[in-house]
């Protein structure tokens, strides 16, 4: 199967690979797995408590090229966004941007799930209501 140029770009040169200290209050960590293939993705965000703006994001993905590209793109997209704006990112945006074929759609779902899980973790740690900032 041929990967799109954008997938190859993110796969060969992934943005924001790394890890943050998950014990910090301002850091939210999402760890999700894809039942379809067993791939695992960890996405972390660092949120400004005053503005709820995501100031930094990091990821580590054990998975296929599309999953790595999806998470790399997701970290780029969430940076500079508020929690509410980041929650509006959907896997279909990722599918479009990376031109993922149908068989690779679940890789983008993994990235959306990882963003939501990271935000959920941050909200829980900071006692922000689950519904606050929801769209
Ligand atoms: Fe093997 Fe995703 S199915 S890496
Ligand atoms: Fe499973 Fe890509 S093949 S995440």
Structure description:
It is a single chain. This protein has 135 residues and is α+β, with helices and mostly antiparallel strands. It has a single domain (5-125), classed as Alpha-Beta Complex (Sufe protein. Chain: A), CATH 3.90.1010. Helix content is 41%, strand content 18%. It is built from five helices and three strands; from the N terminus they run H-E-E-E-H-H-H-H. The protein has helices spanning 5-12, 65-78, 83-87, 91-98, 105-125, and strands spanning 27-33, 40-47, 54-62. Strands 1-2-3 form a three-stranded antiparallel β-sheet. A hairpin with a 6-residue loop joins strand 1 (27-33) and strand 2. Helix 2 crosses helix 5 and helix 4 (91-98) packs across helix 5. It is elongated, with a radius of gyration of 14 Å. The N and C termini lie far apart (36 Å).
